Amino acid sequence: MTDTRVEVPPLAGFTVGVTAARRADDLAAMLERRGATVQHGAALRIVPLADDAELLAATKRLVKEPPDITVATTGIGFRGWVEAAEGWGIGDELLAALGSGRLLARGPKVRGQIRTCGLVEAWSPPSESSAEVLDHLLAGGVDGARIAVQLHGEPLPDVVDALTLAGAEVIEVPVYRWEPPVDLAPLDRLTDAILACGVDVLTFTSAPAAVSMLARAAERGLREQLLDALRGQVLVLCVGPVTAAPLEALDVPTVQPQRSRLGAMVRHLEAELPARTRRLPVAGHRLELRGQAVLVDGELRYVPPAAMGLLRALARRPGRVVTRAELLPALPGSSADEHAVETAMTRLRAALGEPRLIQTVVKRGYRLALDPAAEPAGGHCG
After folding, report:
1. Tell me, what's the pLDDT at 10?
2. What is the pTM of this model?
3. Is there a contact between 177 and 47 (Cβ–Cβ < 8 Å)?
4. Could you tell me which residues are beta bridge partners of residue 322?
5. Which of 128, 181, 201, 356 is surrounded by the fewest CB atoms within 10 Å?
């Protein structure tokens, strides 16, 4: 008989939180194509360039006193800066000011934008890293130099401080400055879902997003609970080490791709999540716990949050009886009682579709019917 089961996508059954503002749709689409459920709660909003008084002031300052060196960090940021200057009627003056000095391009995308504007970069690092740009500048000496550093949503304190200490005058150009979102409800819903064990992976594409999310949680009195969740059951995926820095400073473990790109983030997640699944041979079937769902003999079955909490608790002690009192902490809310355990157990059995997987031990509790002499495989189960 031919097996007609459809292959399960690699991220199916996992819920991924997206905190990005810019390119959030691109990241969500990549995750959803691989089967993930995405919950978006932007932790920031981008201040429109045309309305940004800080960017206008920095641009006028550079037009009046052109820089000796300009460090351009991102293609979209450089293009947006020039377009904003054009909107203010000083686009040509800005290009002339930047062209009068040396232009350093951090990577190929910004290099392309520089050339599109009719300018030519003097140097670009093979690694596409700000650290290599800094090393290059310091090696050549910057004492007395006037250096413009194009920022893109987040500060570069290490670069700016090092150049200042080396004697340079640094003008920070805050392209795409971030502020908290106007509508905080989606971010609050994402935080609440994390605290209710409804999110398996949380993604960050900028350091300010992490800072903003924690600041909002603090306003709601939930900062420590959120940090506990990020240190425990939630996998925190950052686009790169700069983004991860404020989280790791708070002892939140993170994972990062080798290249700081959205596509690399998603591929890294595909490689990382299998180690965090729990695989168990139960009552003649193969179970694989996947965040918010379970594979039963290769078939994906979504499980309600409370029922999933019970299954995770049983899976931590497969084959052993777990009492109703011991299962209570697995349910959301502080008012749950043993009747709530029974209700959630009924829903769990219905979701799994195989009643023999979980046995009721009269007057004692429940047990996951682990096959005799079986050795559970897999890792994290929440």
Report:
1. 92
2. 0.76
3. yes
4. 366
5. 356
